[in-house]
Amino acid sequence: MLGRSTGVASRLKEINECLFITHCIAHRLALACNSAEKKVDFCKHAEHVIRSVYTFFSNSTNRIDILHKYQEILEHPILKIKQIYEVRWLSWYEAIKNLCLSIEPLMDTLLETITSMPNNSQRQNFISLYVEICDWKLLAFLHFLWDILGYLST
């Protein structure tokens, strides 16, 4: 949109040289956050864990059913584990909110899947995902993000 020579803004500027062009503040904030996130190793790790949790559930309707079972047992809201999209920064809010609100049922689902898994290599992957989610720094970071993104999304 704001390309130097072929973007819409530059074409409008050719027609009217007095035109003042600026980025949308929300879009600029999203670009800045995305750029900063890519430079911080812990943020990259958190993104990897969020994507791994989504992949864990997206590959199996049985796991989704187990998650819903534990959400009902623990009287948690029935929420989907959502995917994050790089171009839609508000998708982070929904994904992290649902992850934080479902952390206990998620852990129980992982444990049940691990104990019933015959494939040893896949079991090891799920165990390492479980250990990563148990990290208090990651959990604190996810809750912090949930809080901050909640303000930005309204």
Automatic annotation (TrEMBL):
Protein's name in the database: Uncharacterized protein
Listed PANTHER family: DUF4371 DOMAIN-CONTAINING PROTEIN, RAS-ASSOCIATING DOMAIN-CONTAINING PROTEIN
Domain of life: Eukaryota
InterPro entries per record: RNaseH-like_sf
